[in-house]
Amino acid sequence: MNDYYADLGVSRDATAEDIKRAYRKAARKLHPDVNPGPEAEEQFKKVSQAYDVLSDADKRRQYDMGADPYATGAASFGQGFSFSDIMDAFFGAGGGAGGMGGGRGPRPRQTRGQDALVPLDIDLSTAVFGGNADLVIDTAVGCPTCHGSGCAAGTSPRTCDVCKGRGEIQQVQRSFLGQVMTTRPCMTCQGFGTVIPDPCRECSGDGRIRNRRTLTIKVPAGVDSGTRIQLSGEGEVGHGNGPAGDLYVEIAVRRHPMFQRRGDDLHATLEVPMTAAALGATLPLETLDGPREVEIARGAQSGDTVTMRGLGVTHLRQSGRGDLTIHVLVQTPTKLTSEQEALLRQLATLRGEEKPAGRMASPAEGKLFSKLRDAFKAR
């Protein structure tokens, strides 16, 4: 019995990649363009025969158990070893015949559908607390008329007359490697092995149609713009009513007129009357959780902040929430009655500010400007 391992120069525990690599090396060295002559040609056939056996899992198993597929008379290279097998060895699976996937036998009409990505706009309240949202999508669904077969009522696919159901056509040719066999998908049936003589009028033989439908999406609390929600099996149905792909919903949170989100914290600007800032006050505030009260300390300045714990955004897939930060913006009156002006002048006299003089703030005091900047950004 031939020693195919020795012919390829590999050990008996060689991997499939080791065998393929050894064959590539030997084929490049021995093919007729590089090494003409009967001796090299004979050696090339020997190497090809060894690769034919060892690269096939079933043949290799039989050979290791003592059976030799070529023992009853080695088949010629052109008969037992196809061109696509050689191309597989050099370029990987599917690299030789140049067909549709380089497959073996007919390809299925039913395939998995594509995934789909759709946007979903939600308001900030839904992002904070979660909730349900309706989403209208337009995707491929199984044809209700033919139920995915692609055939008109009372008909069915028939075997292709050209390829006899194989889905591919083989052709023997001569090349620099000798007599080789090429395999190409059948153009008549497009590689399916069957043809549809009378296609369904609803789907034109595709087995699916376009349909608009409404899905109710459960939006988890804590999502943000860019968050994607995966809905398995809600994407495009495949050809022939094949399994549906997945639907990915990408969240876009609408801008809120009052609150700005930073991570899981919310920020808002609260305009405080000058007198309330000077004397301190408890002011009402409408939050996403409903009415609340915020304490303004005596002598509050523009840019000061008040933190309200646990009134921010829910942590996504975690317990707890972020905070709500209130940025104080002191309002200076622009219109005064004569009585109000008189009272303010009286206050200025009492404070010794009849003739006020401004002074330059120190760098440390300059932090006020960054506070003011943040306050206006949060509006």
Characterize the structure shown:
By secondary structure, this protein is of the alpha+beta class. It has three domains: 4-81, Helix Hairpins (Orthogonal Bundle); 116-151 and 203-253, Urease metallochaperone UreE, N-terminal domain (HSP40/DNAj peptide-binding domain, Sandwich), CATH 2.60.260; 260-377, HSP40/DNAj peptide-binding domain (Sandwich). Helix content is 25%, strand content 26%. The chain has ten helices and 15 strands. It has helices spanning 4-8, 16-30, 38-54, 57-64, 77-80, 83-91, 124-129, 274-279, 338-350, 367-377; strands at 116-122, 131-142, 158-159, 168-175, 178-185, 194-195, 208-219, 228-231, 247-253, 260-262, 265-273, 281-287, 290-296, 305-308, 324-331. The strands form six sheets. It has a four-stranded mixed beta sheet with strand order 10-11-15-14. It has a three-stranded mixed beta sheet with strand order 1-9-8. A two-stranded antiparallel ribbon has the order 2-7. Helix 2 runs antiparallel to helix 3 (38-54). It is elongated. The N and C termini lie far apart (87 Å).
The succession of helices and strands, N to C, reads HHHHHHEHEEEEEEEEEEHEEEEHH
- Average pLDDT reading: 83
Domain count: 3
CATH architecture of the largest domain: Sandwich
Classify the secondary structure makeup into a structural class.
Answer: alpha+beta
**Class of the largest domain, according to the CATH hierarchy?**
Mainly Beta
